[in-house]
Amino acid sequence: MASESWRVPLVSALGTELAALLHPITPETFVREYWGRSPLFVKGFPDKYRGLFDREAFVKALTGSPAPADFLHASFDKKGGDPMLGAVGAPKDIPATVFSASPDQAGALYAGGATLCATQLESRVPSLAPFVAAIKRQLGYPGKVTFNGYLSPAGSGFNWHFDMRIASTFQIDGSKRWRFSNRPCVLWPQANGVLRTDGSGRYVDAKVGSESWARIPPFDEKDVTEVVLEPGDLLILPAGTWHDACGGNAGSLALNLSFTPVSYAVLFRDLLESMLSEDPDWRSPAPLIARPDGRPGEVDAQALAAIGRQLGKAAEALASVTGDSAAMVRLWTSFVQNANPPASPSSAPQPVLASDRLRVRADGNVYARTADQGTKLFVSIGAAGLAVAGTAVRFLQQVLSAGEFVAGDSVKWGDEAKPLTWREVEATLSHLLREGLLERVL
Fold first, then answer.
1. What is the number of H-type helices and E-type strands within the chain?
2. In angstroms, rounded to a whole number, what is the distance separating the alpha carbons of residues 349 and 407?
């Protein structure tokens, strides 16, 4: 069967991690139809996550170097049974027993029936960091992406709640029963929420929810889907989607890849800083003193006019920018790119020969974006990057498209009106080798 070619572990899908994770759903369909809108369940195969993570890696993350204070959480949510909505005499709030714990308490907590949650695992399990970076690049996603790990005994899990971020569960070992609403109750909420036994919800942050758009509608227990995740399965829940989970008879180990959004307010703040910070009046607002002989609350008219001028400059700057503008592309690229662990230092590359076989770096840690109607190209390479314009754009795009090529063949990649010389090509390829975009095929 043609689909069998996709039945390879994610760790073997270098450069196509996102497509392999979602298959048979394409990345385009996922972004256009599911992202932030609808749950997605993908039935996998037992070896899909082989080599990515396992129980040994979970334990090693707990017992390695000293962990940050908020690294490990635990919950006894399901230990007393599964709370029933609307049960007579039930407390209004389903008990929330999530708490911070130290790694040396993990064994006793797990033995006592607690689910353990280890956060930001890519910082403790180095092999996970390249996968996180690859997913960010292949989605072109500017927000935060991180792995949490969940180890649950049989019958253990979290009660009904929703998250303020997209949560993607990779079932590694054992099984887990999930129940979830078929649509978000609030689109992109600004805080997590918990469910009360009367079917109403509340935010865990009391400062959130006063706006009409953020109000949580009553929970509809008839509009719920139930699935059992087995090794290799994937479940992606939009932010704001009610769900609960419970470990199977043999317990459960799962990775959760979360996508925490960054608002356009943050992006535009950084964009305005890059465009207007050369203006000293922008960098330091003047005091807003009281108006001489004015009524209480009235302020100096000149100071108000100064604020108005800066607002006008900001509006003018934003109006001059499009999603394709170089300033926006540079900013977006800086948010998307997530460097892999640094490679071992290497000596300066040898001169390029026409017979050399070259390839784009094998780890795939490259993110490219065109700007200004295709006249510029920004390429992030690990933590570094380069920018090209004019005829160099087409040449670099050919390099990225080819993936692997014989150096001498790239002479043909110039414009017909202005053919490239080997001297020009050799200098360009040498530069790309020094920058780490290219490497030799030995």
1. 11, 18
2. 14
